[in-house]
Amino acid sequence: MTQVNITESKENQGNLYYIQSIISELLTNAKCSVKEISLGKRSVLRIECPEHYADIIRAEIIDKIAEIIVIKYKYDFFKKTLSIGGLNSNEKELLITSLIAADFEDDKRYSVERLKSMEEIAVDGVYNFRLSPLKRKWEDVVSYMPGCFISNQLKDFISFLLENKKKRVYIDCGKVYDCHFRRLKRASLLEGDELKITREVLLSNCGEIEITGELPSLDEKYIREYYGDKIFFSNGYSL
Known about the structure:
By secondary structure, the chain is of the alpha/beta class. The chain has helices at 14-22, 24-29, 54-81, 89-102, 104-115, 123-130, 132-144, 151-162, 196-203, 217-227; strands at residues 2-9, 33-39, 42-49, 121-122, 168-172, 175-177, 208-212, 231-234.
């Protein structure tokens, strides 16, 4: 058996739950054992798997840790450093989400490369000590942002980010799925319960949406505003 240990501060224990929940089916199919351990101010996720599944399991774990860094940690960074006037609280959340999505793939690739050689991974330690160039890049983003945004500028900004996007995601009963019908839960790494669907869609970097069923009114408002004619419908429902 091969053992993988991922640690995180107690206050960010939810990050370990994210890893476990996203790859739970793989862990079950590979007959892995999973333990959650509390060590003082640290939380540990310990995964033991058969040797022949070790490379696959480790690659998936690293992939999800990279997502935590470039979504959760980047979100916290922008919440602390980005001061934007002119937007309501929901629009500020959508702006931060769109900034995360804009460089998601590049930031994630960079993080994965820094994680590959590590045997045991302290998520907060990787962020604090191994990703300084990434944080400087985020600081640059903050420095370029205007001090004030208005709703139309936010719409234009998000529309610009959506240009040339081709992937389609699916919204079914309030849950978002990628083009392979895998459930997306990236927005669970963000604070707040408002606009979960809209923020999940933005984080998917999709260009089209197919909707089955009704949406919460607030999500409907912003999805219609940002995606317009890139929305398709199932079961006769239309915005």
